[in-house]
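#structure-requests
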Amino acid sequence: MSFMALIGCSVLLAGCASQDEVVFCPTISAPEEGARAFVRSDDAKQVFDVRLNGVNAICTRHNSGGTMVALSVGLKVKRSLAEGAENDVVAVPMMSAIVDANQTVISNQEFGYRVGFDKGSDSKFPVAKSNSLFRPMRGWSLAFALPIRPLPEHNAKKRLLI
């Protein structure tokens, strides 16, 4: 490798360096009953089918001694165009919880994500992001869910987000 190529690679790699120390992330889980729900839009009152489509986290050490968890949550949000095809916006509430080794919830956090639909659009695949600071402990894990309650006017298997 030539000297100039070595300098070029060094400059390129130095630009990718980060000040944050990446640390081991806890186990991330989503209970089956919290992986799919239905949510009604505020404006058109249309019901949207919301599903988790993957969860990813990057954990870094915070200068306070805690762990900063950058959570990315993939969603699959669908609507029936037969029930309405106009422009609409749906707000999807989500929650995360820290669970100890005994499966006891230590703390939780609620956050949300708004998804806009153009006229005639029936599905979106957005990625919601959340940053949270946690105090690490032995055997902790991170659980993620869509909070839900029954949706009475649909069949009993459907659930509506609260």
